[in-house]
Recover the amino acids of this structure.
C-alpha cells in the first residue's frame, strides 16, 4: 500500500524483524527457555531440566500462586463492584457531577503504585484501622490500584450504550432498579467481563505496592520471583515467572471464552 | 462541543436519589484511597522533613535520574512505536495481525519480566557475553550496562513501546487508503506520503501515547528493582528504600508527595491531550 516495490517491502519487513524480534519476541522466549535450563552462558541454554517446575508447583511457590490467584480474584471482584457502581452513579448525575466522579476514580492511575502502597501502609498501621500484617492490607491495595481501570472501562461502555433501551423500558413503567437489573447490567456484561480480565491481569503482576505491604504469610508470586532473582536463582525465577504468565493467560482465556459464548446466545 | 442525543437524554433533572447513589462508592474511595493519601501528606509535614530530604544528594540524584529516564524512555518509545506501527499498518505481511495480537498480550504481563529476560541476554554470564568470550577467548564480555541507567532505559523502552503502538494502530486504521494510493500514484515518494498524509493523522495518538509512557516510566518500580542496580535510584525506589529498608517514614512521605505531584500533573496533561485527540476525530 505504502511501499510499492517488492524490494522496498522486503526492506521494511527486515527493519521490522530487526526491531521486533530482539526487543519483544526474544524476552518471552528467553524466559521460557531459561525455565527449562540449568546453565546459559552461550548462544543456547544447556542442561535441560524440569526440576525448576517440580519446585515451582509445590510448597512455598504453590502457596504463592494460590495467594496471587485469591488476591487477584478478590481485588478484581471488589474493584468491579465499586468501579461499576461509581460509573453507573456518575452516569445518572449531570455533566459536572460526572466529571468530578470520573476524575476522582481515575486518580489512583495517576498516583505511583509505590505511593499507594506507602499510603495504605501508613493509614492501616494506625488506629482506628489496624490491617498491617494481615492479608487484607495487600488485597485492599490491589483493589485501590485496579478500581480505576474497572471504572474506566465500564464508564466507556455506558457512554456507548444506546439510551433507547433504557427509555423504552422506563416508558413501559419499569422502575429504575428493574431497568438496571434487567436491561443495563445484561447489556454491560461483555464490558464487565473485559474489565474483570484487565483487573485480574494487573493484580497478578502487581509488585510495587505489594513489596511495601506483604506480610510473611501472604506472599504473592511476583514477590517470590523477585526474591529468587535477587539471590541469584535466575532459572528458578524464570520457572516461577512462566507459571505466573501461564496462570494469568489461562484465566484471561477462560474469561474471553465466557464472553464469546454469551455473545452467541 | 455539540451535545449528542445521549447527552440530551441524560440531561434529565437531577434528583436527590441520583446523588445518594453516588455516595457509597465515593465513601469507599475516600476510606481506602483519599484518607491514606491525606495521611501521607500529613506525615510529610513533619517539621524539617522537607528541608532534610529536598536538600539531600540522594533525593536530587533520584529526581534527576527519574526525569531523564522517563524522558529518554518516552522519546525511545515514540520513535520505535511509530516505525513499528507504520510497518504493521501500511506494509502488512503474513502474520502481521498475529503480531498485533501479541503486542496486546505483551501488555498483560508484569514489567519485571523484561528485566529478567535482559539478565539472560546481556547479563554478566548471559548470551551476549557468552558468545563474546566463546569467540574471543577473553575472560569476560563487553556488555556490562544492565546495572547502569542504560539497562533500565532499554527495559523501559521495551516494555512501554506497545502503549504507543496500540493507539497508533487505532489511528492508522482511520487513514483512508485511497488517499495514500492517490498520493503515490501522483508520484509522491513513501517518505513524503508519511510526512504529509500519515504524520498529521498520527500526531494526536503520538501525543496521547507519549504522555502515558512519560507518566508510567516516572512511576516504574519493578524494572528498576529487578535490575538490582545499586547505582540506579529513581523516586519510586527511593520511597521503597526510605520506608521499608530505613524505616524513615517522614522522608519516604516527602519523596512520595513529590512523585505524586509530578505524575498527577503530567497525567492531567495526558487526559487533556487525549481528550482533544478524541474530539479531533
Amino acid at each position: 500500500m505504502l511501499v510499492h516495490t517488492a524490494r522496498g517491502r522486503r526492506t521494511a519487513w527486515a527493519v521490522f524483524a530487526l526491531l521486533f524480534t530482539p526487543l519483544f519476541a526474544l524476552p518471552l522466549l528467553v524466559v521460557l527457555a531459561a525455565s527449562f535450563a540449568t546453565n546459559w552462558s552461550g548462544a543456547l541454554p544447556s542442561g535441560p531440566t524440569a526440576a525448576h517446575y517440580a519446585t515451582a508447583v509445590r510448597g512455598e511457590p504453590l502457596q504463592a500462586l494460590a495467594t496471587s490467584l485469591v488476591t487477584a480474584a478478590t481485588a478484581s471482584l471488589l474493584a468491579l463492584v465499586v468501579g461499576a457502581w461509581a460509573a453507573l452513579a456518575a452516569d445518572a448525575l449531570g455533566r459536572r457531577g460526572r466529571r468530578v466522579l470520573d476524575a476522582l476514580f481515575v486518580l489512583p492511575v495517576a498516583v505511583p503504585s509505590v505511593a499507594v502502597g506507602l499510603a495504605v501502609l501508613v493509614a492501616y498501621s494506625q488506629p482506628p484501622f489496624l490491617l498491617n500484617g494481615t492479608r487484607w492490607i495487600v488485597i485492599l491495595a490491589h483493589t485501590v490500584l485496579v478500581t480505576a481501570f474497572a471504572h474506566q472501562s465500564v464508564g466507556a461502555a455506558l457512554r456507548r450504550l444506546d439510551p433507547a433501551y433504557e427509555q423504552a423500558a422506563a416508558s413501559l413503567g419499569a422502575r429504575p432498579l428493574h431497568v438496571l437489573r434487567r436491561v443495563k447490567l445484561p447489556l454491560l456484561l461483555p464490558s464487565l467481563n473485559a474489565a474483570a480480565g484487565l483487573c485480574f491481569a494487573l493484580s497478578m503482576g502487581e509488585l510495587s505496592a505489594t513489596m511495601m505491604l506483604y506480610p510473611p504469610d501472604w506472599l504473592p508470586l511476583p514477590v517470590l520471583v523477585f526474591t529468587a532473582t535477587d539471590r541469584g536463582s535466575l532459572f528458578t525465577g524464570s520457572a516461577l515467572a512462566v507459571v505466573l504468565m501461564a496462570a494469568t493467560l489461562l484465566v484471561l482465556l477462560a474469561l474471553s471464552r465466557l464472553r464469546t459464548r454469551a455473545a452467541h446466545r | 462541543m455539540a451535545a449528542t442525543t445521549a447527552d440530551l437524554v441524560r440531561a434529565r433533572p437531577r434528583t436527590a436519589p441520583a446523588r445518594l447513589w453516588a455516595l457509597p462508592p465515593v465513601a469507599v474511595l475516600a476510606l481506602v484511597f483519599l484518607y491514606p493519601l491525606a495521611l501521607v501528606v500529613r506525615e510529610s509535614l513533619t517539621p524539617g522533613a522537607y528541608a532534610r530530604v529536598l536538600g539531600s544528594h540522594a533525593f536530587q540524584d533520584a529526581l534527576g535520574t527519574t526525569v531523564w529516564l522517563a524522558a529518554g524512555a518516552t522519546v525511545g518509545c515514540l520513535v520505535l512505536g511509530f516505525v513499528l506501527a507504520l510497518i504493521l499498518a501500511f506494509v502488512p505481511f503474513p502474520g502481521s495481525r498475529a503480531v498485533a495480537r501479541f503486542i496486546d498480550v505483551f501488555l498483560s504481563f508484569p514489567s519485571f519480566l523484561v528485566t529478567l529476560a535482559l539478565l539472560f541476554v546481556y547479563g554478566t554470564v548471559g548470551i551476549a557475553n557468552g558468545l563474546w568470550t566463546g569467540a574471543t577467548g577473553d575472560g569476560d564480555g563487553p556488555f556490562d550496562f544492565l546495572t547502569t541507567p542504560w539497562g533500565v532505559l532499554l527495559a523501559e523502552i521495551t516494555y512501554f513501546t506497545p502503549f504507543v503502538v496500540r493507539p497508533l494502530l487505532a489511528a492508522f486504521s482511520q487513514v483512508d487508503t485511497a488517499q495514500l494510493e492517490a498520493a503515490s500514484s501522483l508520484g509522491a515518494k513513501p517518505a513524503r506520503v508519511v510526512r504529509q498524509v500519515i504524520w498529521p493523522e498520527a500526531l494526536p495518538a503520538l501525543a496521547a501515547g507519549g504522555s502515558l509512557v512519560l507518566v508510567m516510566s516516572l512511576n516504574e518500580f519493578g524494572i528498576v528493582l529487578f535490575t538490582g542496580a545499586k547505582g540506579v535510584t529513581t523516586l519510586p525506589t527511593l520511597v521503597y528504600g526510605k520506608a521499608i529498608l530505613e524505616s524513615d517514614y517522614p522522608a519516604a512521605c516527602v519523596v512520595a508527595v513529590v512523585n505524586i505531584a509530578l505524575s498527577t500533573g503530567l497525567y492531567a496533561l495526558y487526559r487533556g491531550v487525549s481528550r482533544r485527540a478524541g474530539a479531533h476525530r
Notes: The mean pLDDT of chain A is 85. The radius of gyration of chain A is 23 Å.
